[in-house]
Amino acid sequence: MHKSVYISPLSLVTPLGNTLEQHVDAFQKGLSGLKTVEKGGFQDTPIPLAKREEIAADRYDTLLREALEKASVKFPASDEKTAVIVSSTKGNIDLLPGDTFASTQPIIHEFFPGTEVFIISNACISGVIAINTAADYLLAGKYEQVIVIGIDAVSDFVSYGFQSLFALSSEACKPFDKSRNGTSLGEGCGIVLVSTQKPEDFAVLYKGGSSSNDANHISGPSRTGEGLVRSIEKTLKRSGVSTSEIDFISAHGTATVFNDEMESIAFGRTNLNQVPLNSMKGYFGHTLGAAGILETIMSIISMEKSMLFPNLGFQETGTSIPLNIIQKLQSKELKTVLKTASGFGGGNASLILEKLP
Predict the structure, then answer these.
(1) Contact residues for 330 (Cβ-Cβ < 8 A; gap 6+)
(2) What are the structural domains of the chain?
(3) What pLDDT tens digit does each residue of the chain (357 aa) get?
(4) Nearest to 68 by CA among 31, 18, 134
(5) CB 105 within 8 A of CB 119
(6) C-beta separation of 154 from 187 below 8 A
């Protein structure tokens, strides 16, 4: 008998708020969490960051604990049918040169004692891969429910690294726009429940997902979109969904020149370039390993509210393949949604969600 896998959002903590309702309100008003931080970059250069200003220290641990406190789910102390997957590119970087994930499991066990905790750290596709992995565990009968946590915190280490690649924008990022000149970094923690039991609250059906690596370059995406094309095609096949059924695409959209161009080519090659699309980086900044979770949560909310949120910062087409970029808040029934992600090392991932009848 085929099992159904359901996904429901549990909590979301970012500079835009610490409840799902606050994020809905911010997205509806077109508010961005990105603010210029004086002396935020290397050699005290000002850069825009989506950063929780009230957190003075232990940014990672604080975000993780706050999101777990907001999650309204509790499980028995020794529930062998439950697991936790954490998606993060770097964990708590304050713990260097030690294990940057050393604090993660003890904090999680404060809320879910006895559960197995897995870490997925695969650059910026970590969040989408974490959800796909959770679904695979459920379909294989390993667990009945998996808590998936996406988390990354802003740090000088990462900001300086992106600056060294000339990949950071001097203003709030503009995904897919002609005048884009780089990404903007952000932080946050989002939690979803992936389960074989239909939750009482709003949930969507997980239809399928996949990943692919084109091994193009350590930091540069494929110029042909090959890896993303393969992932999308595999996800469509696994889901039993055709391109004509996709109502909305939550794209990766980092606002770097090469990433957005690669995505446009991939969407063109898969005949998806006319589907309404946005990047949420203008709201959250690029939250790295947390991005796939944060953006999946807001995609689920889009389905719940039958609402398309605009792509902040977009004014003029800046890719060789024109895309159907959402430019204003609008109502639309969303039955089937595609979420994509791309990352350093040639990684690409995708998944498809379907609204329950």
Answers:
(1) 307, 308
(2) 6-195 (3.40.47.10), 207-355 (3.40.47.10)
(3) 478 999 999 999 999 999 999 999 999 999 999 999 988 888 889 999 999 999 988 999 999 999 999 997 766 555 788 999 999 999 999 999 999 999 999 999 999 888 999 999 999 999 999 999 999 999 999 999 999 999 999 999 989 988 988 889 999 999 999 999 999 999 999 999 999 999 888 899 999 999 988 776 666 677 788 999 999 999 999 999 999 999 999 999 999 998 999 999 999 999 999 999 999 999 999 999 999 999 999 999 999 999 999 999 999 999 999 999 999 999 999 999 999 999 877 799 999 999 998
(4) 18
(5) no
(6) yes
Please identify which residue in the block is written with the tokens 């699309």: 277
